[in-house]
Amino acid sequence: MEFGLSEDQRLMQDSVDRTLEKVSSLERVRKSAAAHEAYAADIRAALVDLGVPGIVVPEDEGGMGLKLLDAALIAEALGRHVAPVPFIGTAVMAPLALMGAGSPAQQRAFLPKLAGGEAVAGIAISERGAGAREGAGVTASNGKLNGKALFVLDFGGADVFVVGDRTGGLHLVWGDAAGLKKTQLTTIDLTRSIGELDFHNVEAEPLVSGDAQATTRRMLDAGRVMLAADTLGAGWRMIEKAVDYAKERKQFGRVIGSFQAVKHMCAEMAAELEPGRSLVWYAAHAFDEIPAESSLMAAHAKAHLSEVGRFVARTATEVHGGMGFTDLLGLHYWFKRIGLNRQLLGSPERVRHDAAVLQGWAAD
């Protein structure tokens, strides 16, 4: 038995990677960051042509109907190219919310639009993954929402938001709903759009056709796996850049890659990061095929890649020396993306606590 990707999966990832190589160059990413774009419309359009937004949406709703592992392969490619496009929320977590707890009418209304790239969906369930913060949290009463949601994913340009309340319920809120105040956050990562939502008697459409709490858990698991996959792709790109630089940069009449210390730094980065690939693949596989292990493996993948990703980001920058901190090389885009991935949907400490609770080693 071969434990690896199928030929179709390899071809799909290669196709996405080659497309991003063309449309998501470092120069394009720089322009998007400088303009503070909600997302790069041209890059998103290229991915829509490949069917990327519909990766997990059922075929009868206009999507590709594939598994989370397939989505993880795309997330890895997006991280590799620091693509400034909505994906984790719009293409993965929002469809899972509708498929798990939406009514047939809600699914028919939203899934085809998400799959076709006609709509962007923000995800406001960070309190479930990162823990409650003072002044945050949303309450639902009589079809209206009040409160505040922090660190909303795929915030910029969102046509609709999937919002989790304090009791575990899920709701759909239109981006232009009356009483909804939206605040764009400036994070270290300018390739991602993150924001806050303030609700003041905002009309909401509840998702009540399934188990909302179980669906929220599934959304959180999937989001954590996607962030781990994104970090995997970003980390490997930083290693490649460090190795290429070490082959060119000369010091004392020799390329620095010939120095044993630099060789060890590059080798250690690869040795630390590569095992994370199988962990991400297994976590994504467990999501669809081994539900009993899904939450635990998602927590392990997120926590481990967060820690290893930080090590790789720091070490790759050190290999570049002082040049690693300049905008000329642009290494900071990957560095900062890895840094934000580390915190979204739960820091490593929070995620490890979740894993301990799941195994009965700690109280919730």
Q: In order across it, which strands form the biggest sheet?
A: 1-4-5-8
Write down the CATH class of the largest domain: Mainly Alpha
Q: Could you list the spans in which at least 5 consecutive residues all have pLDDT below 50?
A: none
CATH homolog superfamily of the largest domain: Butyryl-CoA Dehydrogenase, subunit A, domain 3
Helix tally equals: 13
Overall number of domains: 3
Distance between the amino and carboxyl termini: 39 Å
Taken in chain order, the helices and strands follow as HHHHHHEHEEEEEEEHEEHHHHH
Radius of gyration from the alpha-carbon trace, in angstroms: 20 Å
Q: State the helicity in percent bands.
A: 40-55%
Q: In CATH terms, what is the fold-level topology of the largest domain?
A: Butyryl-CoA Dehydrogenase, subunit A, domain 3
Please outline the helices and strands.
Layout: H1 7-23, H2 26-35, H3 41-49, H4 68-80, H5 88-101, H6 104-115, E1 121-124, H7 126-130, E2 137-141, E3 144-152, E4 160-164, E5 170-174, E6 180-185, E7 194-203, E8 205-207, H8 212-248, E9 250-251, E10 254-255, H9 260-273, H10 275-289, H11 291-319, H12 331-343, H13 348-358
Parallel strand pairs: 1-4
Antiparallel strand pairs: 2-3, 3-7, 4-5, 5-8, 6-7, 9-10
Helix pairs in contact: 1-3, 1-4, 4-8, 4-10, 5-6, 5-8, 8-9, 8-10, 8-11, 8-12, 9-11, 10-11, 11-12, 11-13
Give a quick rundown of the structure.
By secondary structure, the protein is of the alpha+beta class.
Spell out the key features of this protein.
globular; 13 helices; 3 domains; Butyryl-Coa Dehydrogenase, subunit A, domain 1; 4-stranded mixed beta sheet; 14% strand; Butyryl-CoA Dehydrogenase, subunit A, domain 2; alpha+beta; Butyryl-CoA Dehydrogenase, subunit A, domain 3; 55% helix; 10 strands; 364 residues
